[in-house]
Structure formats: C-alpha cells, structure tokens
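#onboarding

Welcome to the new folks! Below is a worked example of what a typical request in this channel looks like: someone posts a single protein sequence, and someone else replies with the predicted structure as tokens. Don't worry about understanding the tokens yet, we'll cover that in week two.

Example request:
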Amino acid sequence: MTPIHSTAREILDCLYPVLRLAADYAIAIQDRINPLPEKSEYGDNFYATALTDADLTIQTTIELALLARFPQVRFFGEEYQSSYNTKYFRGIDLVKDELLITLDPIDGTRAYLDKLSAFAIILTIIQGDHYEAVLIIKPRQKYYLLALKNQGAYYGDLSQDKLNFAQPLKLAPLQSRLLYLSFGLANLREKFAENFQVWCSATDYAPPQNPPEYLDLIKGNLAGVILEKGNLIDNAAIAFVAKEAGAIVTFWNGEDFQPFSEIESWKIPGIIIAHNQQIRELILAKVI
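Example response:
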C-alpha cells in the first residue's frame, strides 16, 4: 500500500471535526433555508444553479480552518467567486507536486433546498495529478466515506469524534438493474431501456422522494452511473470512492479512470461507474 501523504493525513484529522460541525449546522437550518440568487453559468441545469447560505457558510468555515493551520496549501472551493478568502490562499489551481484541497460545501444543493437527505459535503485532497484522499460527509444519514489512493475505502459513523480506518468499505452484491443518467443524457434513455430500469436526473427528479445516489452503487442498489462530464470536486470524487471500494470506473471511451494532468475549468471527460464488468460492457456497448 502507498502511504498517504503525511500532510494530507494531518489535514484530514484537522478538518474532520470541522466537517462534523458543518454537517450538524446543515441539518439544523435545512428546514428554514432560503435559496440565494441562482448561478447563471450552468444554464438550465436546476441542480447546478442552486445556491444557499449553507454553501457559503460551510465553505467559509473550512477556509478559516485551513488558513489557520495550513496556509501553505492551495484551495479551491465551489463558491470561490463569492468567497472573501480565496485571495488569501496560494492559488486555486492544480500545480505539480503541490497539495490542492477542494470542497463542494453542499453537493446536491437542489435536494438540500427541497428538504431531502440526498446531499453531502465533499472534501478532496489532490496531489499533482491524482486524488490522495476523498472524504464524503452524509449529514442526514450520519455517516462518512473516506477513500485513500491505492488503500481502499472506509466507512465511518459521524458520531465518532475521530476518523476511523477500521471499517473497510466493499461493494455489496448487486440487487438492482437501476441505471442513473446525469442531467444532459435523457436522450440515452431508450438505448438502455432494454437492459435497465433508467432514472435520469433531468426528467425523474420528484421530491419529496429522494433521488438515487451514486453511492447506492456501493450498497448494491444501483447497477451503474453514466455521467455526461466529470467534475473534480464532486462526481469524479465520488467515482474515486466507488473505484477504491471495488467498482469499475472508466471514461466513455473505455479507458480506465486515470490521473488528470490536463484539466480545463475543473471538468474531465464523461465517466461510467459500473458495479461489475458485465454492467460495464453493457454500458460501453451503447455509448461508444
């Protein structure tokens, strides 16, 4: 096993209590939360445009902790354009051989606004061209998932006051033929209807019912996920957790999920997450 970068482990240990506090805060105000003006750069994607006080407050809290303890690191928070602290970090970009911390303060802001439980706080630690670690906090479900490069994934209870590496996270047996399509892929529904029950975030989101979550794949409740594009701070980070837990992750062209040395605007090519090799082959046959 490749040991985790020592500073990365220090950052995880430092931020975990802060993230637990952020999770409690997110729950405490969820029923009273009001949306802020939507972000216009994401067009008609009603998931990506949503913004709340919780997004900004949680990001500020993490920025405070990092600047106090690790002022030397780079940091990219999803709401960097609205942050008072972005200018105090060394930078927000990927630089070879340097640590970059990223944060999606509320992944699933639309679900959060709709009073659902399908949201998360996602922290990543990137070293050069790869993830060193991804930590996903699930406030309503009271657990966290931690994945470490080449060391697998772990499950922990948020009631624990320290990160726990004692519970390895492994894929459960597949019990579903449900396939998740991301927002821009509704046109693929018919292609997959013969082999799967298809759920698309653009057409099937229906509160108060929680949508399927990528992480359901690890539980055996989702056969596969097809993402139109990946974003380093959220869905690609979730794909990394799934991969470390034993799922198969590839790009649409069939190439393995690999280091990201050339990134523009934090986007990477479309991603496929499959529970097993058979599911991967069924998906690739339709998208290539």
